[in-house]
Amino acid sequence: MARPDPALLDPARYPFANAVTTRFADLDPNGHINNVAMAAVFEDARLRFIAAVGLPRNTDNARFMVANVTIDYLAQAYYPQGLECHVGVLPGGRSSWNLRQLLVQEGRPVATALVTIVFTDGERPKPIDPALRERLDAWLIR
Amino acid sequence: MARPDPALLDPARYPFANAVTTRFADLDPNGHINNVAMAAVFEDARLRFIAAVGLPRNTDNARFMVANVTIDYLAQAYYPQGLECHVGVLPGGRSSWNLRQLLVQEGRPVATALVTIVFTDGERPKPIDPALRERLDAWLIR
Amino acid sequence: MARPDPALLDPARYPFANAVTTRFADLDPNGHINNVAMAAVFEDARLRFIAAVGLPRNTDNARFMVANVTIDYLAQAYYPQGLECHVGVLPGGRSSWNLRQLLVQEGRPVATALVTIVFTDGERPKPIDPALRERLDAWLIR
Amino acid sequence: MARPDPALLDPARYPFANAVTTRFADLDPNGHINNVAMAAVFEDARLRFIAAVGLPRNTDNARFMVANVTIDYLAQAYYPQGLECHVGVLPGGRSSWNLRQLLVQEGRPVATALVTIVFTDGERPKPIDPALRERLDAWLIR
Questions:
Q1: What pLDDT shows up at residue D55?
Q2: Could you tell me which of C21, C5, C24 has the C-alpha nearest to residue C13?
Q3: Measured between CB atoms, which of A20, A24, A25 is closest to B21?
Q4: Does A25 contact B19 at a Cβ distance shorter than 8 Å?
Q5: Chain A residues within 8 A (CB-CB) of chain D?
Q6: What's the whole-model pTM score?
Q7: Candidates 3.65.10.10, 3.10.129.10, 3.30.565.10, 3.50.50.60; correct CATH number of A6-137?
Q8: Which is it for the CA torsion A50, A53, A59, A63, positive or negative?
Q9: Phi, psi of D98 (to 5 degrees)
């Protein structure tokens, strides 16, 4: 299995957390939480994080777009136990920012995600406003 | 919209409850929790209920099969609020039993489900064992 | 298992059909297509049917709302084979109409659905316009 | 948006393709195919590819595990149009192999995925058998 930086596996480093309940429909034929269901849990935590940060809503000429999602699957996750998804921001670029996410079940890291979100004018990348960057930087991974 | 028996809409009548978190992926283009996502939440509560009752696991010649699911959609459900699913048994037949489920969001009933589960020998209906029936009857809707 | 009217199981009676591909994520721990995934396939065929009929889009004071979905699960469905969903209208009421759907895999009926859709002014049922009723009646089950 | 190597965007380079139908439930509140639904389509094509290659089934001490999935989202995908997922193998390591996937809608690339699959003894990486490696190498990206 993938061997991510151990520092990424410490929930205490992440400023935001979201608890989710698993569902029977998340199970795959092996009786484990399906990889795609984990992707849905990462996505959900991301959206709740964005609401917590208070990012402005997408408009036609100022849109955040998820450009890349990289998930390391570290261990099996089970049903019916819940999952906890931790989220934090990485120091970012001019027109994009990166989120790091950690998915934990009963204290065990089961997956991590690195997500690149690009700020665009609808088509092309657009510099992130300093006020917005400051707001994001309040949620940096420690 | 459907107008179910008001007595069905009282959570206090159901002996079992399960809280679930909604997910961004549950949303449809209207910005509401999708009908199919509600069906997944009903299914999940059903499985957790079956675990709570302590029903025996399916074997090749003694299987529970969901034969019918009837859902009344009563009101829109929203994200990111959670849902609560209530479950109870209805007095049943010889080789089948019925569950009644109520889905609630922030105190508002949003859907009800009636589910018929048939006990089979893998192919044909099979009488439910008295001990099993007794165990089910401990979870009757009040 | 449920024993629906055999006449419902004849695809030739339905005026509309939609072929769908199954997905690995549709599978449940028993290795069958999950009941909720079948509900998603029924929903999808319903939406494609509505587009084929040319129903007007929902507005704030003229909305179609799915009030009830009743699914009979008849047999297991498998992966990776596809599914075919047949749809037809039943002679309807004043402010609602019913769809009957049949889900088939490799010639075998695996589930049927009866769906009640209510026409509303956003809150209460509203009579269906005769021109719209006529359009629906062109798609009656034979 | 991400700018992947243009050579990756040419379907003709991929030895395997799978057509899938989109579903209404794949849509997100923006009316686009949800990112997680795209992940499910990638997963599905992966499993069909593995069946085409004829990989042995997982056993307790010889298991393939998806260790990493990296998805670049390039453009919006729509409903009700279908999607086509192209798959090919990259020259691989000792105990792992990489798949490259390309998702296309009506000739437009909408996403690419890079997937690392590790061969394990259930716990630790295990060298891939030369016969198996040869079988994989028959499906290299051109």
A1: 85
A2: C5
A3: A20
A4: no
A5: 1-2, 30, 34-36, 39-40, 43, 58, 65-73, 116, 118, 120
A6: 0.95
A7: 3.10.129.10
A8: negative
A9: -115, 135
Predicted complex: ipTM over 0.90: yes
Residue A59's pLDDT band (cuts 50, 70, 90) = confident
- Is the pLDDT at D44 greater than 90? The verdict is yes
Q: Give the strand pairing for B83-90 and B96-105.
A: antiparallel
Domain ranges of chain B: 7-137
* CA distances to A13, B36, B91, C82 from B9, in Å: 44, 21, 18, 38
Identify the band that residue B1 occupies on the pLDDT scale cut at 50, 70 and 90. Answer: very low
Q: For C9-137, which CATH superfamily applies?
A: Hotdog Thioesterase (3.10.129.10)
C-beta separation of B121 from B62 below 8 A: yes
pLDDT in tens, B45-96: 999 999 999 888 888 888 889 999 999 999 999 999 999 999 999 987 889 9
Cβ <8 Å between B25 and D31: no
Name the CATH architecture for the domain at B7-137: Roll (3.10)
